[in-house]
Design goal:
Distance between the termini: 33 Å
Largest sheet: 10 strands, antiparallel
Strand order of the largest sheet: 5-4-3-2-1-6-7-8-9-10
Helix content: 25-40%
Order of helices and strands: HHEEEEEHHHEEEEEH
Number of strands: 10
Number of helices: 6
Strand content: 25-35%
Radius of gyration: 19 Å
Structural class: alpha+beta
Oligomer: single chain
Length: 237
């Protein structure tokens, strides 16, 4: 297909051709690296068999851009009368997140060999800390429903990390940077950095770090609830 023909392809067709299930690495981000703080940008990136990127940018004008193998193949102007485009972008974001989270279902149900009562006791303390910390973040996210001046800066990464090949889920939002590594020994390594007043990546030492053995499903459920909260707040409206 020739270049000018691709630019005539409808946005609906390009959205419907998007298949996150074929990807080994999933990235969703909201408003990272904004060149203009008056703008808003949503980005979906998947790597694997068919690398794809979809960018939605809203400023004085609004447009969606489609990339395949890092090459721009189409850009489409959008407007308030084209709610279908917004719905398709929101569905694509949620579908990408769901597929990334679902990658680890079997891992979470696989019991860790040799777990002890002490492991369980320590992990229950960790679960309480996570529930409290994520609860604080969830309440902060609630402000976006009424505060239209706030800018959501967040990102979710899931799958096989391209640089290392490790199985990871990473969630960045506000001051927290959350890493979940799905270890070969069937433990869930959870590491959380608090970048408060430092900017993303500023904290050098984790606020929380523990290998989770017994309560993998319960702790992962807290992460899923936080991720879905971020995705709901970050929908294009």
């Amino acid at each position: 297909m020739k270049f000018f023909e691709l630019f005539r392809t409808s946005a609906r067709t390009l959205f419907l051709e998007y298949v996150p299930q074929e990807a080994s690495w999933h990235v969703i981000s909201w408003n990272f690296d904004l060149k203009n703080t008056q703008n808003r940008i949503w980005v979906i990136e998947v790597q694997g068999k068919n690398p794809q990127i979809i960018e939605w940018e809203k400023g004085k004008t609004e447009e969606v851009r489609f990339f395949k193998k890092e090459k721009l193949i189409a850009r489409k102007k959008t407007n308030s009368s084209r709610d279908e485009f917004k719905d398709l972008m929101n569905v694509s974001i949620h579908a990408t997140i769901k597929h990334g989270l679902d990658l680890y279902k079997d891992f979470l149900l696989e019991p860790f060999p040799g777990a002890t009562t002490v492991d369980y006791q320590n992990e229950m303390k960790a679960l309480q800390w996570i529930q409290a910390s994520f609860g604080t973040m969830s309440r902060a996210l609630d402000q976006f429903e009424t505060r239209k001046d706030l800018i959501l800066t967040a990102a979710i990464f899931a799958g096989l990390e391209p640089q290392t090949g490790l199985k990871v889920l990473r969630v960045m939002a506000f001051n927290l940077d959350i890493f979940c590594y799905f270890q070969d020994d069937l433990s869930l390594q959870l590491t959380i950095f608090d970048d408060k007043d430092l900017g993303h990546g500023g904290a050098k030492s984790p606020t929380f770090q523990q290998n989770i053995k017994v309560t993998k499903p319960q702790i992962y459920d807290e992460i899923i609830k936080l991720v879905h909260k971020i995705a709901s707040v970050g929908e294009i409206v």
